[in-house]
Amino acid sequence: MKTLVIAEKPSVARDIARVLGCSKKENGALEGNKYIVTWALGHLVTLKDPEDYDKKYKEWNMAVLPMMPEKLQIKVIPQTGKQYHAVTTQLARKDVNEIVIATDAGREGELVARWILDKAHNQKPCKRLWISSVTDKAIREGFANLKDAKEYDNLYRAAVSRAEADWLVGINATRALTCKYNAQLSCGRVQTPTLAMIAQREQEIREFVPKPYYTVTAAAGGVVYTWKDEKSGGTRISDPEKAKQIAEKAKRYPLVLQNVEKKKKQKEAPLLYDLTELQRDASARFGYSAKQTMNLMQSLYETHKVLTYPRTDSRYLTKDIVPTLKERLDAVSIGPYKALAQQAKRSPLNGKLSFVNDAKVSDHHAIIPTEQYVQLSTLSNEERRIYDLVVRRFLAVLLPPCVYEETVIQASIEKECFTARGKRMVEKGWQEAYEDNRYDEEDETKEEVREQNLPLLEAGMKIGQPKISLREGKTKPPARFTEGTLLSAMENPVRYMENRDSSLVKTIGEAGGLGTVATRADIIEKLFRSFLLEKKGNEIYLTSKARQLLKLVPADLKKPELTASWEMQLNDIAKGKKRRDVFMKEIRSYTVELIDEIKTEEGTFRHDNLTNKKCPNCGKRLLAVNGKNAKLLVCQDRECGYRETVSRTTNARCPVCHKRMEMIGKGEDATFVCACGHKERMTKFQERRKKEGGGVTKRDVAAYMKKQKKEAEEPVNNAFAAALKGIKL
Q1: pLDDT digits (tens, 9 = 90+) for 130-143
Q2: Residue 692 annotated in ligand binding
Q3: I need a surface site. Which of 115, 224, 443, 494 has the fewest CB within 10 A?
Q4: Of the candidates 99, 110, 89, which has an alpha carbon nearest to the alpha carbon of residue 8?
Q5: pTM as predicted
Q6: Contact criterion met (CB below 8 Å) for 74 and 47
Q7: d(CA 369, CA 325)
């Protein structure tokens, strides 16, 4: 008899098959003496579309809302039906007596496998493979410690509840808004509060009134001393007259050192990466989008097998990982990391480690290197950057603390207090892991009194005639969101909550904010695809469509409290603390209330981006929209879905100012245009790149143009069906 293993992706299935000795190719599977390994392609089974329950739901009609099937049912996704049938063929084999679920170890991974088994009416016993990396060693150890699948039944119930709740609320609310205002409007419990946070930040920026402030400094003996208020400790003076008086007084008297205090301090390394922290760092340092970082991490995890499971919200390790640390250090002892890894090996790896805490790890530990030796030459430049971030953070926590001597000088000029501070490195410790010293941006505090190198100074010294400077500054508005800072706000949206009740604050903290580490990148991408967000440089802006949507959507859906409450209840279902049927009953009641509110709401939606160009399919006027990396014309009729690309931001750099250029037009008639005024036809661009040795061949250009044409032909909204099938609200 044989065991059937169901993996989530073909690449993972191939790795498992190799370790289990399954080399014989079957239809959608690999077979060995004891095991058969098959795979899904992400989800093979999904919730049925509204029209699958009743033909009347095919038309988007407000009269039939809310759509409330008595029991939500599942169906095979047509596009991947062939692989589903390949899996069920293996399931039905008489020589298969056991199933091993080997999909991703998390809520969605559980759903992928269980829906396949449910749809196939499987009655055979199931085990669960739960691993955080797909190295050969991890797979072998995982199969040696398989769990009974029943232990994860509650996790499956939570996953189904999440999917069904998002279907009931998301599809009904989206259809109601779209029907009422005849525009492509979508909303959900995560994407709408995310938009609301961006809107609140934009309002803060609009309403911000800069206020002038003044600082007084005294330069003496190669040191700059800054005036400080003795009571508040602040260095800014709001009254210009007071600032002027202090500066005038300081010019007439010597500076006297009152106290020179030296303290030896040490600083621990920043914690290991979870996915959100990694996405933040990659956004700040390389300008990568959250989705791009997620894809790179997935490749390093699945294809190269050099990093552990990416979709984690923990920054700690469990005790069982500690014995493997030396092996992981051996794996990264190459190139730029070799000396650091050797140094880390000399540290005690079995005592009390600050980054080891079982209580702070839920499903998966922090992202760290695997025991797999890495070939840096096989990684793309982008993969190399992400790998470098993770390895350096891993090495940093294993190195000694950074030790430095901090000197704080208190001085006075005729009863006015001045201060200076300096820092002298004693032992770099973990900071040696960071060549550019960009190690932990969230810990970097904006000091009013900047650090400087100080000469040998003692209390009582008097310095005559210091050089006094009076400077004026202005307070700055809050910064606009980038993808990195938006991820931070989604993770901790407390300041955007109307109700700051302590229990709600605690709830949203325990729930992990808006969305999950696995879904936030997709949510941000969806907001760009729906033309609710646009980018200018790295900064994120709301579109007119988004601002109008926020006025029309029910207030409840704009609050972070709603999704916090949902996630908390889903976690309770996963832990067996709450019944699934109770949660779903509450969701159905909430859906009815929500649709009633939309139906009775008074409001209008106006397209303020209409052009005079007509749609070639239906004749209606096209809308001018800004995609994430392109300018497009799209049809205003949601059922038509026509769109065309006007221009696209490329990676081609301007030969004058070196900024990225836009490409207008198609094929050989395309023109590259830069903001500085430089223009270049495609033929000229190709000639220049050939001379420069850019390596762009005609085949490269043809492939790029083919990709652009394919993207341009994709409908912006085929009646929302495709978008809503995999909706993650």
Answers
A1: 988 788 888 999 99
A2: no
A3: 443
A4: 110
A5: 0.77
A6: yes
A7: 9
